[in-house]
Amino acid sequence: MTAEITCLLDGRFALAECPTWDERRQKLFFTDIKGKAIHALDWKSRELETWTFANEVGSFALCEDGRLIVAVWDQVILFDPQTGAQQTIASIEADNPHTRLNDGKAGPDGAFWVGTMDNRSPRQPVAGLYRVAPDGKVTQILDGLHVSNGLAWSPDGTAMYHADSSPGWVDRWRFDPATGAVSERTRFAQLTNETGRPDGATVDSSGNYWSAGVSAGVLNCFSPAGALLAKFTLPVPRPTMPCFCGPELADLVITSLRPDDAPSIEAAPQSGSLFHLRPGLTGLPSHRFGAKG
Questions:
Q1: Span 262-290, pLDDT tens digits
Q2: Cα torsion for 79, 80, 83, 84, to the nearest 10°?
Q3: Gap between the Cα atoms of 256 and 274, Å rounded
Q4: pLDDT tens across 235-260, in order?
Q5: Which of 173, 175, 207, 201 has the alpha carbon at shortest distance from 188?
Q6: pTM of the entire structure?
Q7: Between the CA of residue 247 and those of 25, 42, 45, 283, 284, what are the distances in Å?
């Protein structure tokens, strides 16, 4: 599997993450976590729209009613991009000064699945994974995590993938798309600094799991059985999350972060930008908060 990788948007954001395709608006949404912003790239015109928030935006997901559900530090809010109106529906780990909300996505069950991360270095296993139901009820699924990441679901919605970036594992769970219940946790992949510790992820229509190898400048593609099918080397050292997008869901976009050190930036000046390839596979429509199926 080979493909040419080009720069889609030379934005050089501090920490671009959570690319999410909205087929209704024909826009690619993504966050700049450190920039405290959500951006939307119009696929046809390439115009960029931006909304800013009071704190770092760890992740977000599309809602069935057209709003976004947004993880802002330790608060989960509903945000209307048309009016700017915000409504807080949940608070997660607000009593822990060392954690913030991180990777999150809407699941096949219509809930918002979101994890936290330890902001300190070295990171400690003090974070967790949570399910936020459409009525705002929060259920903790896991604790003892360093950096919750890599959420994605199989095409039929019966398997959920989840990663912890620091120890480098990706696990697969049996998932009930009707209730959001998880069971039968198994180890799917184990990655290292050299092979690409797992950051954000997505699944294609064939069930392959695509993981941004944030420590190695690569994008890893695994089969549903956990075999490494392909590895793409990116022109920047810190890719953060892939997303299938475009009218036919045949375009794969990868966000990236901008390192703090001058040598890394000099070696890869487009760090923090969005990159594009067409791998010959298609993706899946995004699940929406408040909608099942």
A1: 899 999 999 999 999 999 999 999 999 99
A2: 20
A3: 6
A4: 999 999 999 999 999 999 999 999 99
A5: 173
A6: 0.97
A7: 11, 12, 13, 11, 11
